[in-house]
Design brief:
By secondary structure, the protein is an alpha/beta fold. The protein contains 4 helices and 7 strands, in the order E-E-E-H-E-E-H-E-H-E-H. The chain has one domain: 2-Layer Sandwich (Transcription Regulator spoIIAA). Helix content is 44%, strand content 19%. Strands 1-2-4-6-7 form a 5-stranded mixed β-sheet. Strands 3-5 form a two-stranded parallel ribbon. Helix 1 runs parallel beside helix 2.
Length: 124
Amino acid sequence: MKFKIDTREKFHAITIQEISLAANMTEELDKCLLSLLQNDVKNLVLVLKDIETIDIAAAEHLVATQQTFYENNASFVICELNKSIEKKLDDEGLLELMNITPTESEAYDIVQMEEIERELLDEE
């Protein structure tokens, strides 16, 4: 699987450079994504602008991976989804389970807000 990692101050932006995200790709994806939880910068923005098709099993795996990030006090935001993928996820009832934004800039805003929220909760 081809992907590009761009590390920013508060998050890693990972762009998957494939046209399809299949269930058999999730193991390789996990190696890349879950390893980020060991870094100082744990937050992830997953850019899926190149993805034209997605297996439901792969989408369900993304939901589970997102949950793993949140359990480890890290943000996981998906952005730049193709409209047909968005519709497919909505039809399957998965869209509402995912943290999705239209742009990477909006994803960054979500990461920042969640960071502030975690800091406030830690103070209490």
